[in-house]
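Q: A reviewer asked whether we had any structural model of the full assembly, not just the individual parts. We don't, so I'm hoping you can provide one. Inputs are below.
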Amino acid sequence: MNIFRFAGDMTHLASVLVLLLKIHTIKSCAGVSLKTQELYAIVFATRYLDIFTDFISLYNTFMKLVFLGSSFSIVWYMRSHKIVRRSYDKDQDTFRHYFLIVPCLLLAMIINEKFTFREVLWTFSLFLEAVAILPQLVLLQRTRNIDNLTGQYIFLLGAYRAFYIFNWIYRYFTEPHYVHWIPWIAGLLQTLLYGDFFYYYFHSWKNNKKLQLPA
Amino acid sequence: ERNESIKDEL
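A: Here is a predicted structure for the entire assembly that you could use as a starting point for your response.
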């Protein structure tokens, strides 16, 4: 464990807690893309298949349970909670996320470190995570404005993977033959995808005005 | 072994 990875995990934890608290307290999911939340639930489900077979540490297992529990709770809230589901904007949240799942699965069948069931799904979860934010960013472009909590959620989500990149650099220089191109490239792509959002988020924060995304 | 080292990450 190093400071970059710990910061990344805490930032990631903060992002899901911000979203869960928002939905739980104000009983609204306005501006939140259910598609992105469903993609994240799939990411965690396919990433953490080893949760019951490979015990790494209490921290590792605890965090996996938190990420699985929070992502599935958010999906449940947005689909089934009688009050929250009313604020879900399904007419605007129309990104066909199956167009992301199938290519990521095919790519994971081709590009992986070893062709086993768990390794392919683990690789799939990396590719899917890299693009999972797309429905949310498309929804924001459509609805134009963004409330603070959703903005913070996306910012934290982008920041966590940026911290992980520093973690990978650190581990590359401190651990012999720690080389993993697949997560590195997927993680870099993912962070770049947040790039323009960060740009507008930073400028809105600097000018202390409401975050407006260009049409 | 080599490619398991990253599996300790979330």
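A: Points you may want to mention in the reply: Chain A has one domain: 3-205. The longest helix of chain A spans residues 148-174.
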